[in-house]
Amino acid sequence: MNKRRRIIPVLLLAGAICSLLLGSFTGCRVFKKPEPRLPARLVVRVFNITPERAALKIDGAYYNPNNYAFTFKGGDLDLMLDTFHLGRVHLDTVIEVPAHAVFNVPVVIEPDFEKLGQSGINLGDSVRISFKGDMKGSVGVFSRTIQITYEGIHYLDLQLP
């Protein structure tokens, strides 16, 4: 009986510590999603992956609103330009993100430029950019995948090589 009285407080303390640690990253109310901070004029670099294949590169800026650092471990996004589906992007970058910091996620996509040209979208005017997908991150040994969405009006600053 005496041994049992000593184990119960230890188990309660261990449970409380685990709850705090798990809640700090996996709890929906505690972990705040990174916030997109895309500028009104979005720099888009056009470059060749090979002589026959062109691609676009955009650096997506995000803000970590949390009081602790985390590791960005990639994700997957569906990227839209107005009503045109640019494609699905797989992000395999690993970034150490400090607390309350802005960080950049490099996004490279190979859209079908022929279909983009036929879409009638005026790239010289403002366009609606939207994306939906998931992002993976971790704090210590705790990992989480969160849904991210964004929609905003931007001017594209196309930069050719």
Description:
With 161 residues, the chain is an alpha+beta fold. It has two domains: 1-30; 32-159, Immunoglobulin-like. It is 19% helix and 53% strand. The chain contains two helices and nine strands; from the N terminus they run αβββββββαββ. Strands 1, 2, 3, 4, 5, 6, 7, 8 and 9 form a nine-stranded mixed sheet that branches. A hairpin with a 2-residue loop joins strand 2 and strand 3 (53-63).
CATH architecture of the largest domain: Sandwich
- Unreliable stretches (pLDDT < 50, length at least 5) are 22-29
SSE order: HEEEEEEEHEE
Name the overall outline: elongated
Q: Briefly note the structural class of the backbone.
A: alpha+beta
In DSSP terms, counting alpha (H) and pi (I) runs of 4 or more, how many helices?
2
Secondary structure layout:
Layout: H1 2-26, E1 35-36, E2 41-50, E3 53-63, E4 70-81, E5 84-91, E6 95-97, E7 102-109, H2 113-118, E8 127-139, E9 142-159
Parallel strand pairs: 2-9
Antiparallel strand pairs: 1-3, 2-3, 3-7, 4-5, 4-6, 4-8, 8-9
Short précis:
With 161 residues, this protein is an alpha+beta fold.
